[in-house]
Amino acid sequence: MQKERLSLKEASTWATYYLDRPVTTSNIGYLIQYAKIKKYMEGLKIKIAFNELKKYYDQNIIQKQQQWKKRLGNDLNWNLSFAHLRESDTTKHVHRLHPYKGKFIPQLVEYFLDSHLNTFKKKIFFKEGDIILDPFMGSGTTLIQSSELGLHSIGIDVSNFNCLISKVKIGKYDLVELDKTARDICFKTSEFSQKVFDDSFDEELKERLNKFNKKHFPNPEFKNKVRKGIINNEKKYGEEKLRQFFKENKEFFEENGTKNKLGLLNEKEMNSFLHKWFSKRVRQELFYYIKLLEKVEDENLRNVLRIILSRTARSCRATRHSDLATLKEPQIGPYYCRKHKKLCTPINSIVKHLVRYTYDTIKRLKEFSNLKKDVNSEVIHGDSREVNIFKEMKKQNPKFFKLLKKKKIDGIFTSPPYVGQIDYHEQHAYSYELFNIPRKDNKEIGPLFNGQGKQARDEYVEGISKVLRNIGKFVKDDGDYFIVANDKYNLYPLIAEKSGLKIVDKFKRPVLNRTEKDRQPYCEIVFLMRGRGV
Known about the structure:
- The protein is of the alpha/beta class.
- It has 21 helices and twelve strands.
- It folds into three domains: 5-72, no CATH class; 80-94 and 103-166 and 374-531, Vaccinia Virus protein VP39 (Rossmann fold, 3-Layer(aba) Sandwich), CATH 3.40.50.150; 175-365, no CATH class.
- The chain has a seven-stranded mixed beta sheet, sandwiched between helices. It has a three-stranded antiparallel beta sheet with strand order 1-3-2.
- The longest helix is centred in the first third of the chain and has 23 residues, at 50-72.
């Protein structure tokens, strides 16, 4: 008989069995923290009620999955949802080197590129030494998984910053020199910050916020009141308490957090984006780091440092926690945070994040260096509608060019942009501005700013078709084209026809694990296409 009260470990074990996927003690802790279930104390030990936990999973997981299955159809390959995987599995090694919207998980790529067979995948499509192309490379997932599997790969992207992310992920480094250089610049930036800025202001602000939040937003009592509707106007309550906090701390906010103005860098050299989206201290620290990395002679090392700084800058923008993925408006001081149900404040120094991401980046690059095979992985910055892959590869890697010219590309694995969903340049606007990288927004296919109307869909069909026709010149006649798409407008049959391809198979997968606010599941189709003559 099931115990009425469970420890976190017992709850984790039971939930893993019940849901048929890994559930960690941290997952259970999350449910307690966000008032999804209650916490009970037995002495010093945290316990939870079995019935409450089961009820939560039944209502929020089991019933929803049944509804999803009914809504999305019975022809889904549920194995391709990869819902059983932990986040650490889907973001392993370099896959989490930098945030990126719209990337597919590595296990989906691996599923079709590797040599396993099952009920759904009845044929091995590629073997070691084959050449894979991704004409919509994004953050380089296809290239990374190809490298792990012993496949040569080429990625093309119109976004310069996407190319930078991918190059850093697949790059070869003197890891000892990288470690030394990255830590040195990180330390010097921290030293600069401590010399110029007064940490006592931020520390005091944090203490005052913690004291105020414990009194007015106690956890989990406040979250429970919001969830149950006892506090029926959360926004109004939060804004009232925010005004109260400012009133009680008026004199404190009039103080200055800079202790040595003579050490400040000339802000006239900084662009407007830095001024708008970063606090004074953060933009000074960012700019100081940039000045240091510009002195690094090795371009590969410089690129790694840029990715570390970009990841840091993204986390330290002066905005609300809920708006980090999509910027809305600058937020400098404390605010009521609907995500955390308390008063929060934007980060006012990059140092902690910079240290963390420096160590994390070095660790992840080392991990991947031990996994990847000795194969060619090349990135082309260009428009896949017109790029000459042979010509570019002859310039970049003559040895690989000879192999490529001799055997041609064996297959495609790609996920084109979904029509009207993401502006790929805009999501990394902070990095384009930080490093003065030229943008080519007008070259994007199916961007969010074009919408999803008939004209946008027609342009999308023409754009994707042009890409497939162009890259077809470099693919062998019986090459396999795997294209992952959320084809809610049924555009890909027409795209295949206009590209001289035929759809020979479809693998329908549910997308259940979403990180965006809209967590509604949807279907992706992995189209397998080949030339019409094959």
